[in-house]
Amino acid sequence: MTEKTEIESLYRTYRTYGLSIAYRMLGTFTDAEDIIQDLFAELAVKNRADVQNMKAYIAKSVTNRCLNLLHSAKKKREEYIGEWLPEPVAGTAELPELAAEQKDTLSYAYLLMLERLGPVERAVFLLREVFEYDYEQIADMTRKTEANCRKIFSRAKQQLKGSEIPSTPIAQGQRKAMVERFANAFLHYNPETLLSLLTEDAVLISDGGGAARAAIRPIVSRERLLRLFTSPNAYRDLRTWSVHVAEINGEINLVYTSEAEVKSVLCFQFSESGDQVQHLYMIKNPQKLKHIQTYLG
User: Fold this and answer.
1) Which secondary-structure segment (H or E) carries 21?
2) Is the pLDDT of residue 258 over 90?
3) How far apart are CA 219 and CA 226, in angstroms?
4) Residues 104, 291: Cα–Cα separation, whole Å
5) 131 and 175 in contact (C-beta within 8 Å)?
6) Neighbours of 271 (CB within 10 A)
7) For the chain, N or C: smaller number of CB within 10 Å?
8) pLDDT more than 70, % of the chain
9) CA distance 286 to 293
10) How far apart are CA 129 and CA 118, in angstroms?
11) Cα 199 to chain center, whole Å?
12) For residue 68, how far is the Cα from the chain centroid?
């Protein structure tokens, strides 16, 4: 096997695994792709005979690159205009490492939950909870002691307490029907249907990043959302765009397009009972829609 053929084989084998870690660590697919490209460029000139476990090496390298990027991006996050939301991905086609029972760890609500953790806590939590590494391996990957990793994981679990994703997943058919009902009620200014679909404490969070018109702060309560969703002056752009039901982050959500250009993605998180919408996440920042555009375009 030639050098080039070997690297191509490693890339085909481990690219999606590395992406699975990097995307959850960063919440941005474009940055995750850059990290994977850099990793394999370095691997091409590395003495690979020293690598005893390639999968663990990939996980360690991706984790450390992500930690470095998260630390350097902290100021950018603080200066970000409005609310910062993760970059959505279309379906799970790019991340087939996921087994069906792990699909919820790609959901938009799960990514938002991870935002409550610091970089190292996020790394330890993901490596243990999602990728099922033991503490000895995690210690090596994060350059921490095994005892420290156990404490970090415990602290992360405590921080996430109360923000867990509903334990009973909604069937895709039921979710699709509810998302379509919302889209139709919003389009036709139907307050009765919207009232039945939204929880009393429903929240809308929008991300325009200063590049698209979006609310700077979260909009809280069913009453306020009803006024907005039924106002002819609010969200007029969404009503002029075509709306599509699509699998985003492994779940049925909405994509808005204009002349084949993706303009917005609207992701839903349902209540524990599964019959009402608890959170809505509207992504309008064009920089965060590039992957959706490429995949759907």
Assistant:
1) helix 3-26
2) yes
3) 11
4) 20
5) no
6) 16
7) N
8) 93
9) 10
10) 16
11) 23
12) 19
Least confident of 99-108, 119-128, 133-142: 99-108
- Please check whether residue 100 is in contact with residue 34, taking contact to mean a CB–CB distance below 8 angstroms: no
Tokens of 55: 């999968």
Let me know: does 219 contact 228? Beta carbons within 8 Å. Answer: yes
pLDDT, one tens digit per residue, over 44-96 is: 888 888 888 999 999 999 999 999 999 888 778 888 999 999 999 986 555 55
- pLDDT tens-digit profile of 155-188? 999 999 876 665 556 788 899 999 999 999 999 9
Domains of the chain listed by start with CATH number: 3-86+96-160 (1.20.140.160), 172-296 (3.10.450.50)
| The model's pTM | 0.90
Angle, in degrees to the nearest 10, between helices 146-160 and 135-142: 100
Return the structure tokens found at 224.
Answer: 């306020």
Contact residues for 133 (Cβ-Cβ < 8 A; gap 6+): 56, 59, 127, 141
From the CB of residue 275, how many other CB atoms can be counted at a distance below 10 Å? 13
Could you tell me the two tokens for 72?
A: 């350097």
| Alpha carbons 83 and 277: distance in angstroms, whole number | 20
Look-up: residue for tokens 């334990």?
167
Contacts made by residues 143-149, CB under 8 angstroms, sequence distance 24+:
143/64, 144/120, 149/124
Helix ranges (H only) for 94-253 are: 108-114, 119-129, 135-142, 146-160, 172-187, 191-197, 222-229, 236-240
Tokens 């200014």 identify what position? 189
Tokens at residue 278, please? Answer: 């608890």
* DSSP run (H or E) holding 101: none
> 155 CB contacts (<8 Å, ≥6 apart)?
121
Q: Chain centroid to CA 254: how far? A: 15
Across the range 142-156, mean pLDDT stands at: 96
Q: Which pairing describes strands 261-270 and 251-258: parallel, antiparallel, or unpaired?
A: antiparallel
Give the type of residue at 266. Answer: L
